[in-house]
Write a structure and sequence with these properties.
Layout lengths: L6 H14 L13 E6 L10 H19 L3 E3 L3 E2 L4 H10 L3 H18 L10 E2 L3 H17 L2 E11 L4 E3 L4 E2 L2 E2 L7 E10 L5 H6 L9 H11 L1 E10 L26 E6 L10 E4 L4 H7 L3 H10 L6 H6 L4 E9 L6 E7 L10 E4 L5 H10 L7 E2 L5 H4 L24 E2 L10 H15 L2 E7 L4 E2 L1 E2 L9 E4 L3 E4 L25 H4 E3 L6 E4 L3 E2 L1 H4 L3 H4 L12 H6 L4 E5 L5 H15 L12 E4 L2 E9 L5 E4 L4 E4 L2 E4 L7 E7 L11 H7 L1 H11 L6 E2 L5 H21 L12 H24 L2 H17 L5 H18 L4 H11 L22 E8 L2 E9 L4 H10 L1 H7 L6 E5 L3 E5 L1
Parallel strand pairs: 1-2, 1-26, 3-4, 12-14, 26-27, 28-33, 34-37
Antiparallel strand pairs: 5-6, 5-9, 7-8, 9-19, 10-11, 10-18, 12-15, 13-14, 16-17, 20-25, 21-22, 21-24, 23-24, 28-29, 28-32, 30-31, 34-35, 36-37
This protein binds one RNA strand of 86 nucleotides through helix 7, helix 10, strand 19, strand 20 and helix 18.
Length: 889
RNA sequence: GCCCGGAUGGUGAAAUCGGUAGACACAAGGGACUUAAAAUCCCUCGGCCUAUGGCCAUGCGGGUUCGAUUCCCGCUCCGGGCACCA
């Protein structure tokens, strides 16, 4: 054994050994419990960043720990290889997206191997390879035939200068990122996955995922957004005298030409129906179009509504604008006319594209009514409040919000007033009663709705999985037959504005599989979320050329531990859950959910820096190229200041990813892994700083030295029983407490930082433990063996060398996890905290089995307590066993 | 704007079920060793005061409790997501 720690020698040695002996190759074995440990696969952006190191180290620690616990472990790796950045890089560097992607994969694979991860590389996959995406196309055609995929119009961001569709990320302040042109909304046909058909199950199954973080389940529940409400129809014509619903009996025209006889809205607050003072429709609503005919002002307003991006955050934060259409609809109960407004905040894609507005009881409606001078009519008061208070003449039917109505808008549930026969009922009662009456009138009914929308997967981009559909002028949309799959994406292309396959007749010209006539292939590609929705299953059988999945998938699935960034809490994780159910329902898997346990790692964030180019565009500068001089951030290259954009998650688009390579080159993979795990608990977000790396490296050197010195003095049998000198006995108690704590920290709490801290404490105690007698040395041997094994999932390379030195012939990856010896944990005496009125005043040593009365008496008699009682009698004495005594005076 | 998180010394953090606030580290300061440097080892290290003691202190303001970093209510700031970044 070398006297000094040389990671540059032992790390490549260990990695070469693991690779040559195929140590981490996973083989199905029904005789052993399996543990499928999966970290979210990376997008091959070019280089690893610290977020990857964190993600894959966490996964590796858990995989190696479970291997030591006797599980048959699978830890695979692959590449989420399709996506937008490859096209951007292709334009910037004049290369093909495929070549750029494969080069990045090669480089990043090398970086991952350099981290020493216990991965079964034989299962590696890349989503941009035809042997992967052909099965995605295969499943697509099945789902298309089952009606779970359909085509409809959808709104996208349109750059009128470049004539391209833009991703939300490519819209900056309402303008296209390249052209700078004002972005417009445009409707185009797209394919949709009918995820709403699974909304109920996706919601209900969240209650059966105890291994998922509560916050992720909450986010998904809110995203699915099941709500119970009422669909209400506002007749377009007043109901005739004597009752009956307006519009009934009128002839329905062809949809799209004749306006409907009622305006439908959906509301969760039907109880506020008597407070409606206007209804608002989306700019694309047929009523709005009808009103705009011959009304240039309204036409101009509707056109204005078309500007801007489709991103919900933009829609929600933009200024609320509206215009009166001049049309009215009639209140289903009072038959009063209600004005119809067009409003930019109402979206055609949600519900019916129309909302009833109750300014008195809704924040947004209230702001809108104030802005445009619309009436505010209060109809709900807090429960338990005297009705007279809200029924003052001043406040009832207040034409506007005013100092007289300071409580408005009142958005809580309550009791109705000024609501006809419904007055006096609670909100909940009124909703049921109103729904019943509306149903009898034929003007509405109770409805359950979901916020979740169907998943549009068409992308007008090149670098993605081709949608396997052929458009035939006579047969319509025909799925590509199995024997013609895969539809291969041509890789040797040149990229400029727009997708090259849309200009490639050799790609899109084809024969209709049904009638044989000339037809055209779909040139849109799929959303890259589709690939990442089922890769976890394909890892079970990546080599199967004849089927998407086979029985091996049911051996490994569900994933026992999934690890990835919290930023994926909703979209990716929901789509993957949905896909699992799709695959179940076509008979590919037997489980209901893909991921039994989920660990959402906090993001590694870093400062962003930029300079503005002449045209106002931001050029993002990597933090590695920036230094601080006299408190000012400057570019190292030219010493000139750069602008600070705040800390954000490491990403390619903000160029703030910190490459771990320099760290690994300088200190080795073990130091990088140890530091990353020690810096913070995994779920917490972490602002990157390498302050402290030195400390992690110092600990490994100390560990090496401790083992070296012990081995130099001669290795012995680890302690196996017998008398111990008191210091060795106390130390051994700490050792077994530490084993219990570290096991719990890794397995249950997944708090690697405290596990490492406990081992550091133990090592500090070991250094201080004196005595060269045989008994003490056997305890030291026991402790060093345990420490090295406990650290081996975190820092495997150094531990592999150290365990060989401590136990010649030992194999690290084959060694079992150390077990805590219960008998070593026993204590004779314990220390209790003494409090007077909740303040710490002293400490008390008592025997471990002391009775409550004995403890109480000892506490009251202690000088510290006496001093603070100042002769007053004790009102109460609280004894918390094993912890403290609190005397209340 | 809506949904979900977070905030503790100079810094990263710990306190696991309401019971010793600051474990373990980093940085800093002091010392030992050395011709010197590096490395290593030892000590100090939340603030204040009338200092062997005491008071204050876990983003801010309230509340519950014998006792609150932890629970409740109301804020502020920071991060993530918002359906075409992945």
């Amino acid at each position: 054994m070398d006297a000094h720690y040389h990671p540059e020698i032992i790390e490549p040695e260990a990695q070469q050994h693991w690779e040559e002996k195929q140590i981490f190759r996973a083989v199905e074995d029904p005789a052993r419990p399996k543990y499928y440990c999966l970290s979210m696969f990376p997008y091959p952006s070019g280089k690893l960043h610290m977020g990857h190191v964190r993600n894959y180290t966490i996964g590796d620690v858990l995989a190696r720990y479970h291997r030591m616990k006797g599980f048959n472990v699978l830890q695979p790796m692959g590449w989420d290889a399709f996506g937008l950045p490859a096209e951007n890089a292709a334009i910037a560097n004049d290369v093909a997206p495929a070549g750029w992607t494969y080069a990045n994969i090669d480089y990043m694979r090398g970086q991952l191997k350099r981290l020493g991860l216990a991965i079964d590389w034989s299962r590696e996959l890349a989503t941009c390879k035809p042997d992967y995406y052909r099965w995605e196309q295969w499943l697509f055609t099945r789902l298309f035939e089952k009606g779970l995929i359909y085509k409809k119009m959808a709104t996208v961001n349109w750059d009128p200068a470049d004539c391209t569709v833009l991703a939300n990320e490519q819209v900056i302040d309402g303008r296209g990122w390249r052209s700078g042109a004002l972005v417009e909304k445009r409707d185009i046909p797209m394919y949709f996955f009918r995820i709403t058909a699974y909304a109920e199950e996706l919601l209900a199954e969240l209650d059966h995922l105890p291994g998922w973080p509560e916050r992720v389940k909450t986010m998904q529940r809110n995203w699915i957004g099941k709500s119970f409400g009422v669909e209400i129809h506002f007749p377009l014509l007043p109901s005739p005298p004597g009752g009956g619903a307006g519009g009934e009996g009128r002839q329905q025209g062809e949809p799209g030409f004749e306006p409907p006889s009622v305006l439908k809205v959906f509301t969760t607050r039907a109880d506020t129906l008597f407070g409606v003072t206007y209804v608002a429709v989306a700019a694309e609503h047929p009523l709005a179009r009808q009103a705009a005919e011959g009304n240039p002002e309204l036409t101009a307003f509707i056109d204005e509504c078309k500007q801007g991006s489709v991103a919900e955050a933009d829609l929600a934060t933009m200024e609320k604008k509206g215009m009166d259409t001049g049309l009215v609809v009639y209140h289903p109960f009072t038959n009063e006319p209600v004005p119809v407004w067009v409003a930019n905040y109402v979206l055609m894609g949600y519900g019916e594209g129309a909302v009833m507005a109750v300014p008195a009881h809704d924040e947004r409606d209230f702001a809108f009514a104030e802005k445009y001078g619309l009436p505010v009519r209060a109809v709900i008061r807090p429960e338990g409040e005297a009705s007279g208070v809200r029924r003052d003449a001043d406040e009832r039917d207040a034409p506007h919000a005013s100092p007289l109505t300071p409580h408005l808008p009142y958005i809580e549930h309550g009791v109705l007033f000024d609501s006809g026969d419904f007055s006096g009922r609670t909100s909940a009662e009124a909703i049921d009663a109103m729904a019943l009456v509306l149903k009898n009138l034929g003007l509405g009914e109770k409805r359950t709705t979901f916020r979740l929308r169907d998943w549009g997967i068409s992308r007008q981009r090149y670098w993605g999985c081709p949608i396997p559909i052929i458009h035939c002028p006579t047969c319509g949309d025909v799925p590509v037959p199995d024997e013609q799959l895969p539809v291969v994406l041509p890789e040797d292309v040149k990229i400029d504005v727009g997708s090259p396959i849309k200009k490639m007749p050799a790609f899109y010209q084809c024969a209709c599989p049904k009638c044989g006539g000339p037809a055209e292939r779909e040139t849109d590609t799929m959303d890259t979320f589709v690939e990442s929705s089922w890769y976890y299953a394909r890892y079970a059988c990546p080599d199967n050329a004849g089927a998407m999945l086979d029985e091996r998938a049911n051996y490994w699935l569900p994933v026992d531990q999934y690890i990835g960034g919290i930023e994926h809490a909703i979209l990716h994780l929901l789509y993957a859950r949905f896909f699992h159910k799709l695959m179940r329902d076509v008979g590919l898997v037997t489980s209901n959910e893909p991921f039994a346990n989920l660990l959402t790692q906090g993001m590694v964030i870093a400062d962003t820096y930029f300079r503005e180019a002449g045209d106002g565009k931001k050029q993002w500068i990597n933090p590695a190229d920036v230094e601080t001089k006299d408190g000012v951030a400057v570019l190292k290259a030219d010493g000139q200041p750069v602008r600070v954009g705040g800390a954000e998650k490491m990403s390619k688009s903000k160029n703030n990813g910190v490459d771990p390579q320099a760290l690994i080159d300088q200190y080795g993979a073990d130091t990088a892994r140890l530091f990353m795990m020690f810096a913070a608990p995994p779920e917490q977000s972490l602002e990157w700083s390498d302050a402290g790396v030195e400390g992690a490296n110092r600990f490994l050197r100390r560990l090496w030295k401790a083992v070296y010195e012990h081995v130099q003095a001669g290795i012995v049998q680890a302690y196996a029983g017998g008398e111990l000198p008191p210091p060795a006995r106390d130390f051994r108690r700490q050792l077994h407490q530490t084993i219990a704590k570290v096991s719990d920290d890794i397995e249950r709490r997944k708090q690697f930082n405290t596990a490492i801290a406990a081992i550091m404490e133990l090592m500090n105690a070991l250094t201080k433990l004196e005595g060269a007698d045989a008994a003490t040395r056997s305890v030291k041997q026991e402790a060093l063996e345990a420490v090295v094994l406990m650290l081996s999932p975190i820092v495997p390379h150094i531990c592999r060398t150290l365990i060989k030195a401590l136990k010649p012939g030992a194999c690290m990856v084959g060694s079992p996890w150390p077990a805590a010896d219960e008998s070593a944990l026993a204590r004779d005496e314990i220390e209790l905290m003494l409090q007077v009125n909740g303040k710490l005043r002293g400490k008390l040593r008592v025997s471990a089995d002391a009775a409550r009365e004995v403890i109480e008496a000892a506490a009251l008699a202690s000088p510290e307590v006496q001093k603070f009682m100042q002769g007053k009698p004790a009102k109460k004495v609280v004894v918390v066993p094993g912890r403290l005594v609190n005397v209340v005076v």
